[in-house]
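LAB NOTEBOOK - FOLDING QUEUE
OPERATOR: T.R.
BATCH SIZE: 2
PURPOSE: Compare the predicted structure-token outputs for two unrelated chains run back to back under identical settings.
PRIORITY: normal
REVIEWER: second-year student, initials M.K.

ITEM 1
FIELD SEQUENCE / FIELD STRUCTURE:
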Amino acid sequence: MRKGNPVALLPIGVFLVIYLGLGLLFEYGMQIPMGFYNIPIVIAFLIAILVACLQNTQLSFDEKLTLMGQGVGDKNIITMLLIFLVAGAFVGVVGRSSAQSVAYFMLDIIPARFAVAVLFVVACFVSTAMGTSVGTITLIAPIAVEVAQASSYDVALCVGTVVGGAMFGDNLSFISDTTIAACNGQGCQMRDKFRGNFWIALPAALATLVLILLLTLGKETTPITQDYNLIQIIPYVLVLAGGVAGINVFVVLLAGIVSGAAIMLFTGQTAATDLLASMGSGAAGMFETSMVAILVAAMCALIRVYGGFDALLQGIRRCFRGPRGGQLGMGLLVGAMDIATANNTVAIVIANPIAKEMSRDYGVSPQRTACLLDTFSCIFQGVIPYGAQMLVAISATAEMGYALSAFDIMGYLFYPYLLLVSSLAAIYLVKE
């Protein structure tokens, strides 16, 4: 390994100081709702890249542009960007009303005394199908409040159950930003990452379900009925089944888009022009995420050449020894990035190149590395009180007339806590 240069890591430090500092100022100093998400993250990365360009005077600016171009032009980066855009178009086509149909369908057919457990299962399924935890919480949290109103269950318990279930799919879904970023950043197949990830997530989900049943059985509740249309979930099922079967992700997403468009048009849910507009807005919703991936790839290309990653790896090697220690180091690395950015996709994109070097250094497979990055980022993202998931849950609950704080909900985030236990058990007890 080459001699490391810790100063080369300065651009990452500059980005974190700007983003975290302004986020804390907006959120707590100026009391701006969703303050962390009012910061132009692209501008913060541009400043970090400027710092990187000002370093290492031995290279000309043109040479630095060439290095950045090589970093952005990597096959995995291009693949990631295309999947982001196609996944966005898919979500734009199918809409989100089908998610509520799934929820009301299950609440209709399953006895009301299991309502909270149903909320968890629904949130798991919907988030896995949609690939978004925030979208899942936006749709299912109001239903969770309805369940609490129709029963003696605690509102915080119902909402916390939905947040936990939403993180299940955020971690596992084939069209989740985090899965796309982790798999393409490490150069592994999504189906391989899913297989390893599933056996970490499943025990945590089952333990969560048992805990919820122990806490809620015996309570009286009123059945909740609402109209639903299950035909709209067909595209989600196709995408989920195709992903598990190992079909190429582009083929799977295109099948979902075509089937979703056909259903929306033939059932009269939307006009052709509106459908195209929805596809465009769905893809446009991925632009910032795509831009972040491009900027991080450019910045990390310079940091790598300057010796920053070598310095970081040398420091990590002193703290974490052996393959198991290396895996824990990867998890803590992406967790620290998530705490600083309050965005698990951005945390993975930043950690990807460093983790890739670590996987080679510690002899950890790409799919295992992708699994750890995705899982630990979702663990931290699911519990930080200033994360988008928590803020959306609080906002949705407030609109229904209930004032909850993040700390009220955090006591009922069983799934993220148990996922951490399951992840640590996988690292230290299960040989790869």
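ITEM 2
FIELD SEQUENCE / FIELD STRUCTURE:
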Amino acid sequence: MKLNVLRTDLAEAVNNVSRAVSSKSTIPALEGILLKAYGAKLSISGYDLEIGITTNIDATIQEQGEIVISARLFSEIVRKLPEEVVCIETDERMITYITSGQADYQIVGMSSVEYPDLPTFEETDSLEIKGEFLRDMIRSTVYAVSDNNSKPIYTGSLFDLSDKTLKIVAIDGYRMAIRKEEVDNESNTQFIVPGKTQQEILKLIDDEENVVISVGQRHILFKIEEYSVISRLLEGTFLDYKSTIPKDKKTEAVVNTRSLISAVDRMSLLNGDKIQSPVRCVFSGDEIRFSCTSTIGKANDKISAPVMGEDVEIGFNNRYFLDALKNVDTDEVKISLNGSLSPMIITPVKGDSFVALVVPMRLSNV
């Protein structure tokens, strides 16, 4: 294999693809990236048996071929090369020569035969969606994906496509996030995408470009400009999320989002990794009063907000509360409550583009 390629194109591609590379694997090739030089394109792939990222960049190919190179080392080399044009050449001993300006490297590669094939699958459904919409949907829900592997199904989000509407639902047992957008698609299907995959999708999405999603029985493929991201789907039964949203609402308040975030953030100063005291919220009259008491002190605050319905005193984990508030995209939110032990519901003042639920913490009588 012998080729010339622009360093900036190569560095960006290697950086993005390397996120799918296994940091430690019993298969040495999976700690590398696969380079394939054919035609006028250099194909670059990373794969950890759960998620694979592939892209193609323009290159001047003098000799076709394939090689697997250490992802960590190759990324560092490319990032620090002095000139814009990079020459990459391999020989029959799997030695890779990398030259740029006066700098040159010789590193040991591996045969592409040792690299596992990325999955292929039969498409059962497909969807095309604006990159901006998909980015906002994932960003406003992925925070609620569980990191507890005892229930693997909740380490991903449910993509629920029906009635020309796509909903993304994430839940971890303490909070739930739902985001929806209308789409031009007649399919009725559900599938569960791992949270890790969604995080990688976020880093690649361009707002101006559409994302094409191909769904199979066990795998999903996201096509984002020149990048292809293939991932396994999570298998199992997802919670009936519609039934978990409380129907009754005894208390409602419309609150400025930024003011609410600031108040909860101030209470959070008394909490830390080892301290988890609830933020106490009292909804009454025309204000919401906040307080927090922990082993290191006390704090109080209040903000103006017209409260309709019954007065209520309720407590929340500050981090869960803030995560929900920071991932809405409206200046004001509607807070709905059904007593001190029922989840808080956060929705837009108008419409139903998102729903966030936060389970309360029991309060002591102190």
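REVIEWER COMMENT (ITEM 2): The two ends are 73 Å apart (CA to CA).
FOLLOW-UP: none requested
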